Amino acid sequence: MNRPTERNSRRTGSARVLVVDDEADIRELLELSLIRMGLTVESAGSIGEAKRLLDEKTFDLCLTDMRLPDGEGIDLVRHISANCADLPVAVITAYGSTENAVVALKSGAFDYLTKPLALEQLRTLIKSALVIPQHATLSPSGMPVLLGQSAAMQAVRFTIEKLARSQAPVYVTGESGSGKELAARAIHSNGARRDHPFIPVNCGAIPENLVESEFFGYRKGAFTGADADHDGFFQAANGGTLFLDEVADLPLAMQVKLLRAIQEKRVRKVGAATEEPVDVRIICATHQNLQSCVEAGKFRQDLYYRLVVIELRMPPLRECREDIPLLAGVILERYAGGAGPRLSAAATSVLASYNFPGNVRELENVLERAVALAEGDEILPDDLQLSPPSIVADSSTGGGKWPLQDYLDRIEREAILDALEQTRFNRTAAAKVLGISFRSLRYRMERLEVS
């Protein structure tokens, strides 16, 4: 079994790589390439031989073929994940078998290489694998952290620590305000790309006619107003992570181009004659059900399988009620700097019993308002301006009409949802049905957390 202390000491010297492949010519090619990179190489032709070497020696990286004489490479990946948790392992797969690579990634593989092997791709993988932090922290300097001691949040942090060691695409799901971008930043800042840019993109906020130029950049003179060359999101994130928030809002035409960019790792600027290479890790998120979008024909199935390799679910705040007092204390400290009012026991109880449909984002808004309204050194339940749980849960009775703002918001939300369903979720058509502008509809949908 690998010993982490020995592995960490090797980072300063010649790293040792284990190559597992039953084809002698592939092993020789990999050995020569890795030795030229200054690495020490051991090789094995079977899973049994690889396990023996893993028991006897310490390695910093393992490269394994998917098809071996005594089993599948996935079996070795699982063995390493269970017994050598700090050892990055990458799989080598032939064209047409990327579905096996996806299974390997979900089982704990760091990345995968495709045959025929490309030297540049191998170098990129080696560079990423040998700088992975073995004991990543989820509180990098100057970065916000995912707080909470509930079982749900502890599970999220454990998963993020594993995902940070991989280069596989990650799909973050969760309700609005549940911390999807925060999770994506944690994955990036604890991984091999942490010293490179993290570029967040709200896919739903870009006008459809500008999506391609914003993502891939453009050449001077490509269109009216293109006065100089301009890099897009892919170039800005080169070497780092591109976070695609609300990816379900991408137009279908752009989904085709995004799929090619991810597959080929190359992009073509608008107005350019040639493509340029880019190296980015993709993390995407949406509060919508992406599988349902595929079934409805709004999202391409091939792109779905490229993006949804590993799924990370962010729990809603109502599943982490025991974390609310801690979160509230941190938020109040940020707003008031320790000099403002504190939560009374009664106010804390009200917060813990509220469902928070807007999750942590709503908690922040509630506390910011409460700080402004509190008259003494304590925040009282009335300062929170929250509906009692019985009113939140029951909208069919007369009592559901109070407080007035909650009742009006509920009516407005229902009207918007009805209009969207009537127009098959065409927001432009829904705005016409409602008699408001498209901009106004978008604002109202964001305010009311309508998806």
Fold blueprint:
Blueprint: H1 4-10, E1 16-20, H2 24-36, E2 40-44, H3 47-56, E3 61-65, E4 67-68, E5 71-72, H4 73-83, E6 89-94, H5 98-106, E7 111-115, H6 119-129, H7 151-163, E8 170-173, H8 180-189, E9 198-202, H9 211-216, H10 233-236, E10 241-245, H11 252-264, E11 266-267, E12 276-277, E13 281-286, H12 290-295, H13 301-307, E14 310-313, H14 324-336, E15 342-343, H15 345-353, H16 359-373, E16 378-379, H17 381-384, H18 389-393, H19 404-422, H20 427-434, H21 438-447
Account of the protein in words:
The protein is α/β, with parallel strands linked by helices and 451 residues long. The protein has 4 domains: 4-129, Rossmann fold (3-Layer(aba) Sandwich); 151-313, Rossmann fold (3-Layer(aba) Sandwich); 317-386, Helicase, Ruva Protein, domain 3; 396-447, Arc Repressor Mutant, subunit A (Orthogonal Bundle), CATH 1.10.10. Helix content is 45%, strand content 14%. The protein has 21 helices and 16 strands. It has helices at residues 4-10, 24-36, 47-56, 73-83, 98-106, 119-129, 151-163, 180-189, 211-216, 233-236, 252-264, 290-295, 301-307, 324-336, 345-353, 359-373, 381-384, 389-393, 404-422, 427-434, 438-447; strands at 16-20, 40-44, 61-65, 67-68, 71-72, 89-94, 111-115, 170-173, 198-202, 241-245, 266-267, 276-277, 281-286, 310-313, 342-343, 378-379. The strands form 5 sheets. A 5-stranded parallel sheet has the order 2-1-3-6-7, with helices on both faces. Helix 14 (324-336) packs across helix 16 (359-373), helix 19 crosses helix 20 and helix 20 crosses helix 21 (438-447). It is globular and about 75 Å long. The model is unreliable at 1-13, 132-143 and 389-399 (pLDDT under 50).
